[in-house]
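Data deposition worksheet. Section B asks for the primary sequence of the deposited chain exactly as it was used as input, without tags or linkers unless they were present during the calculation. Section C holds the resulting structure in token form. Section D is free text for depositor observations; keep each observation to a single sentence. Incomplete worksheets are returned to the depositor.
Section A, Depositor: J.P.
Section B:
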Amino acid sequence: MALVLALALSASVYWGYTLFLLATGLIVFGVAYGWPRLTDSPQPRATSIMLFIFGVAGLIAAFRDSTAPYLDWLPVLAGLGLLWTFVQNLTRGMGASDAVANVSAQVAGVVIALSASTWVAAITMPGDKEAIVVGLVSLIVAGCMTALPWPAIYTSPLAVAMPTAVAGILSVLIFRDAISWPVALILGAVMGLLVAGVDRMLGLIAHSKYQAVSLEISQNIELKKNVEKARSFAVQLALGAAPIALGGVIVYALERVTL
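Section C:
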């Protein structure tokens, strides 16, 4: 899933900002649908709606902002998302189980969904866009390394080393005049570290029951199968979309520093 989303973003870089915005919306959708099911939220539909609303609002705000830093509304949206999280969990009642874990997971989801807007902010900045392409290619390579059917002790170092090498090669052979090779190496390494770290951290959650004790006590076998199947797809969606959304923060920061 990370490969598909990153390719969509890469292709849309040169096809106009509107297409880039729509492609970034796929990331928001992936996070919104997958995150509540990855974390076994007791209110998956309500949480998905909330994450999608704030994620899309962040994209539109960044797209329509014509002056630097292009993220003026992001703190406001983050604050409203935090408020919504607490209000939504209060509706579960004072004696609701796993309240702290649910609030923490939901707040983290808001942060990740809003992080996708940094891709839009990066593309609207004046100047060359080669850093965005290098960052996306690094995400693709790192995602491919983590998808290998090997233990993490092997895939994690590869997820850092290979994007670093590919980013350096791109800067020397293709984007020589746009991005220096030291900057490209750093960008590739940071993207690799991000993907490897997110894969390891969220992978542990994906292979454990975070909050869904109701699934364990359910006597409906068909319900179990359906829920587990949906959870499996949603988990893969979240694992693919989360590092891409967070990767926008790195590219945006690099664009701001080098501008």
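Section D:
The chain has one domain: 2-258.
The CA atoms of residues 36 and 43 lie 8 Å apart.
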